[in-house]
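Why does residue order matter? Because the sequence determines the fold. Keep that principle in mind as you read this record.
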Amino acid sequence: MAGKLVADMANRAFRVRAVLMDVDPYGGRAEAQPPGAAELLKAASERISRLYARKLKIALFGRDSAKVLADMSDDVRALCEGMQAADNRAATPAHDLAAVIRRTLVDLEIPAGSALVVSGRPDLLSAAARIGAVTVALKLRADGAKIPTADYTAADLPELETVVRLGLPLSGGKLPNDLLARHFGRISIDDPALLVRPGVGEDTAAVDISGEEVLVIKSDPITFASDAIARYAVLVNANDIATAGAVPRWLLTTLIFPSGSTPSEILQVMDELQAVSRRFQITLCGGHTEISDAVRRPVITGMLAGTVMRRDLVDKARMRPGDRIFITKALAVEGTALIAREFGAKLRQLGMPAAEIDRCRDFLEHLSILSEAYAASTLKSVSAMHDVTEGGLATALTELSWAGGCRLEVDMDVIPVFAETRRVCDLLGIDPLGLIGSGSLLICCRPADGNRLVERVRQTGAAITPIGKALEEGHGVRALQNSRTVAWPQFEADEITRLYGGA
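Structure:
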């Protein structure tokens, strides 16, 4: 069965403003009165009253919806004055059902994504899903029929309220414990090193590192992204752990959502954090989730720990004059994906084709540098690795110079830039050198092993380009362009902040 039971919680983020209920106590035969029809009508009346009290718009939507509305109690009809009944007995093809749903939503002045369509009919749920509505498979009678595919399933009308709650705004404070408990109940953790596991009331995690020599720890917040924020949170932290030659192991997250966020929006992020962590074999140990008016958009701060044998630790202090400097992939992988996902409409207005914007959105799939970092760390001649993050390559090379204790020389003519990135930056008037760039890895190695490094990294499928070398001891970056020395750019803030400031 596709779709998730209420007990499995959210798999889709939504904000509910209307409920379209397919309550069919007559089994499609208006002249009949099957056993239990009266009880079902009474239960439906009670639930509709409760939903209406939450300021939700209600529509009855079924084969005999007009009769169902007529047969409901007087107090419900009075309370829900103006409640709609959309009879779709004759609408059997999927496109006809979708048209009926659309007309109902237009009458209610509600967008499809803010409507729950509740039914036990596969054809109706399929039509609702096609137009973007949130679907709930409601199983009212145990007649042996298979539960239809839907975003959610509810065994009865009381469970429907649990689904509705997922789409209602939350006020400030912690995420309610019952929602946390259900989320934790779905997590399968098979890491024997995790001794104290996430749960309600657990404020710490405990891990056993007796078999390891060095613990590498990293913390970073994600403040720009709202789309795919969980993926950014995991990989931005994991990338930095990998630059030390370590394996990312245990993740703690602090999630802060703006007041008015719905449980489904929060739980979807938590689900995605778990899914991305498992994909990269990272154990999500727990953390803290809160709703607060201190933020305007979701913020995730991750704290990730990894392990490495002492002999394999990559310490930037090992950098020496003469070391060659390489970059994997090209500039601003993260920034390109982020802009396409957050400012796609603006790019379309500036003339960028939808297909090209979609390609930029897909850059998110290349955010990880784990495979190339692991490949590079197998070479003892690799002296330093650095993930290109906020501030882009301009900031990353300056940071690498300070950490390695050497001045660096960079040939600007050979720095790789994706064509899509160049197009985005030209349209928006920003510099790719200063654009947030997770997904690109800076690697320094002894000059004699440069070719071996290139071979190993390319075996992972990642491109790698030599862009410079380490000079004498000191700090700073010497830039060459057309064989002439030019100023290395500096950015007070990441270039992407200019877009958010303008927005």
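Residues 316-502 form a domain with the Phosphoribosyl-aminoimidazole Synthetase; Chain A, domain 2 fold (CATH 3.90.650.10).
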